[in-house]
Structure formats: structure tokens, C-alpha cells
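Work Package 3 (structural annotation) set out to generate three-dimensional models for the target panel prioritized at the project kickoff. During this period the team completed the workflow that converts sequence records into C-alpha cells, so that structures can be stored uniformly alongside our sequence database. As a representative example, we reproduce one entry of 208 residues exactly as it appears in the project archive.
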Amino acid sequence: MSTLDEYKKQWGQSFCESTPYDQLTFQKVIKKRVNQHTRSSMQYFWASFAFQILIYALCGHMVIRYWFVMPILLLSLTGILLYIPFTVMLLKKFKRFAVVTIVSNETSSTYEYLLEKQRLLENFFRFKKQYEFFLIPLISAIGVFLVFAIYVPGGVQAFPFGAVITYLITLLSCYLAIRAENYKSFVRPLAQIKEILREYETGASIQE
């Protein structure tokens, strides 16, 4: 009888020792799936950051080259100022998105990790849609005006119809590009994270 009790005790100890390993493996699987689904979001971050650096470089170049032409100078500075809040928010949100991790081996920690990933991505996506709603029309107008002012003799005043057509084409192109970008980098990853959360909740309810 004592031998049987001893075996039970040893089995219980080995089971307890294996539990953290199983939980750790589960967390690795969760993180791997989340990283796979959010890879496109991180790709958006680097592409967007590079694009904004290009905008700053172009506007800065025009500020230096055309500092004596007041309309070009003011519009170039405006273009820089319009993008600064977006760049700050991009760096702030995606830094937190990249460094968030599972803080312990507890099941609740894994669930909170998923929720935090979802929350950060949703918050930036909401900000992005709201900010781009007025950013894109303004920056497109600035871009069209600058292109006509620099490369078209007479500028917008000489060819108002051409400027309007160019502006509308620019808006349409931006709309289509942003729509595809939003789906790839935000809508689809968020849907996949929510699917993982549903699977997680279903598994937890079954275990209970």
C-alpha cells in the first residue's frame, strides 16, 4: 500500500512539473500564430515610416530650394506639419505593439496578451482612418499645387481644369490604395486575432 501511495505521489509531482512546459509550449504556439497574422501590420509600419521619411525629405528639399517663393515654402512646411502627428502616433503605437509580450506562464496572461495585441491594432487603425480622412485630401491638394507650380508654366492658375482632374485622380488612387492597404494590414489581421480569441475562449470553456 505504501508503494502504491509512493507511485501516486511521484506521478503527481511529474505531472505538476510538466504543466509549465505544456503551458509554455501553448504560449509559443499562440505567439507564433499571432506573429504570422500580424506580420503584414508590421510590414505596413516599415513601409509607412519609409514613405513619411520620403515626404519629409521632399518637402524639406523644396523648403531649401524654394525658400524665396512664399507659396511653395508655406505649402512645403504645411506638408511637413501635417505628417508629424501621424508619424508620432505610428512610432508610439507600433513600438508598444512590437514589444508587448506574455508576462507569465498563467493562462490569463496569454489571453491578456491577445487582447492587448487586438486593442493596440484597433486603436491605431481607428486613428489612421480618422486622420487620413482629412490628411489625404489636404496633402493631395498640396502635392498637386506644388507639381503644377514647379513643373507647369503658369501653375494651377493657368490650368485649373487640369489641376482639378489631377486632384480627383490622385484622390481616387489614394482611396483605392488605402482601402487595399487597410484590408491587408488591419482588417484581416484583426479578424484573425479575433478568431484565435474565439478558439481560446472555446477551449477554456470546454476545459471548465
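The radius of gyration is 26 Å.
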